[in-house]
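Thought: the user asked what ABC transporter permease looks like in 3D. I have the sequence; next I should run the structure tool and report back without guessing.
Action: structure_tool
Action Input:
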Amino acid sequence: MDLSESLKMAIKTLTANKLRSSLTMLGIIIGNASVIAMVGIGEGAQEFVNEQLQSLGPNVLFIVPGNRETRELGSLENPRTLVVADAEAIANQVPAVVGVAPEYSTRSLVTYLNRSANTSVVGSTPSFLAVRSFEVAQGRFLSDLDVRRNSQVAVLGATLAERLFREDQPLGNQVRVKGVSFEVIGVLEVKGSNLGLDYDDAVIVPISTLSSRIVGRTSPYGIEVSFISVSARDRESMTTAEFQIRNLLRLRHNIMDEDDFFIQSQDTLLSIAGTITGALTVMLAAIAGISLLVGGIGIMNIMLVSVRERTQEIGLRKAVGASQQDILVQFMIEAVILSIAGGTIGTLVGVAGILAVSAVSPFSPGVSMIAVTIAVSVSGGIGLFFGVVPARQAAKLDPIVALRSA
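Observation:
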C-alpha cells in the first residue's frame, strides 16, 4: 500500500471518531499553547524591563547609600551616608561625568483646593532633567536660583497634574505639601515609572526646599539624598567614571575598608534583569513543556485502545495481503496526524493568548517563531515517538488470532 492510501485511510479513521480524536489532541493543544504563550510573555516581560531601564537615561550610574550587603538585608531604616555635597564634589572633580542629579524622595499629601493625592515628593536639582532624560511639557523646570533661594516652586508629573487640576491650568496655581504652599512652574512629559518611582505621579521641588521646609535636616553632614544619578560622557567612559567616583567618595568619607555606598551601572541592571527574566522564561517554558509529554502519553494510550478495538480490521487486512510495514505505517501516520493537528491548533491558541495578554498588560508579548517551530516540531516528534509502541503492537498481530478474537 502506498503512502497516500495509508494517509487517506488514517484520516478516514480519525474523522470517524471525532470526539476521541479531539480528546486525544487536547493534551498536545494545551502543551503547544502553553509553551508558545509562556515564551512570548517571558520575552515581552524582558523587553518591557529593558525599556524601563533604558528610560533611566543614557550612560547613567546610580550611587546608592549603604553597602550592597546592607541593602540586601533590607534594614528598616535606609543608610544616610550620601549628601548633596557629595553630588557637588562629583560634578566638580570627576572629569568623566557630564551631569549629576541628587534625589531625595518621600511621600506626602499634595492638595489643590478640595482635591488631594498621597504621592511621591522628590527633591532634586536642575540637572535632573538632562541626566534622567525628562522633557518639560508646560512651563519650565527648576533652576539653580530656585535651589539656592530655597524657592517654593514645584514641577508636577503629567498624571498628578491631571488628577489635581483636571480642566484647570496648573501653571501659576498653588499646591500644598505638608501645609507648605508651592507655585506650580511646570509639568513634565509622560515618562512612566522607573526605579520603583512613578515620576508621572510625583511632584518635584528643589532639594534644598524639601530639606528645609518638609523633611528637615536628617544628616549631620548636609542634605541627605536617596541616591545620586550620574551621567557619563559616553558608554566608554562609564568604567572610568565609576572608578573616579569610588575613589573620590572613599576619600571624602575617610573610608579605609568597606564602602558605605555602592555604584550600580545601567548595564549591570540590564544584565541582572535579563538573567532573571530569561531564567523565568525558560522555567515557564519547561513547565508548559510537561503538558506536551502528558499529551504524548495520552496519544499512546488512545492508540493502544484503538489497536484493541480494531483487532478484527487488522486481522482482515493482514489476511488479504497487508504487510507488517503497512500496518505499522498506518498507525504511525494516525499518531503523527493527531500530534501535528494538535500542535497547529495549540499554536493558534497560544498566539491568541499572547494577543489577549498584550491587550490588557503594560508590556507587549511577541510571538517567537523559534518557540512556534520548536513546539510544533516537538509535538510532531512526540506523536511519532509515542505512536511506535501501539503501531508495532498492531503490526505484530497474528491474522488468525486477530480474526478469532474479534
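Thought: the tool returned a structure. Summarizing for the user.
Final Answer: Structure for ABC transporter permease predicted. The radius of gyration is 33 Å. Residues 219 and 319 are 96 Å apart (CA to CA).
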